[in-house]
Amino acid sequence: MNKLQWKQLDAENTGLANLARLSPIVDSANSVLVKLTISSDKDQLKKLDMGYSDRIKVYCNGNALYSGTNTFRSRDFRYLGTIGYFDAIYLPLKKGENTIVFAIAETFGGWGLMAKWENVDGIKMQ
How many angstroms separate the Cα of 8 from the Cα of each of 18, 26, 40, 70, 88? Predict the structure, then answer.
């Protein structure tokens, strides 16, 4: 991960990190990594509500914790694959610096990530 070059992307007013602003979709095999660094004042479990498009894997300090699909019709035949806070993950944060990585893949229609903490007691984003 240290050899990767990271770019800053601010979230839009809606809370969406529009990944197409940094990495446009060019074919049907697109993937990006989104990194978030969190400082925790103690070892703790924190709930993170999230939404994404289309597929995701979430890692906390190098450990895979979540894998999901939010594609067109993935939840039922009427589902459009929209991004919303439909999923949640409980992150085991250790005292000090923690690295959260979201590996996101997209097929068509645009891609993005939304995430919000249930509470921010004892943590801060770096």
Answer: 12, 21, 22, 25, 24
Which pair of tokens denotes residue 118? 């249930």
Query: How far, in Å, CA of 64 to CA of 57, rounded?
Result: 7
Question: What is the full per-residue pLDDT of the chain (126 aa) written as tens digits?
Answer: 567 888 888 888 888 898 888 877 666 558 889 999 999 999 999 999 998 888 899 999 999 999 987 766 666 676 666 777 888 999 999 999 999 999 998 877 778 899 999 999 999 998
- In the chain, the largest separation of any two C-alpha atoms, in whole Å, equals 44
Reported pTM: 0.85
Q: Which amino acid is residue 14, in one-letter code? A: T
Region for 64 from its dihedrals, namely left if φ exceeds 0, alpha if ψ lies in -120 to 50, beta otherwise: beta
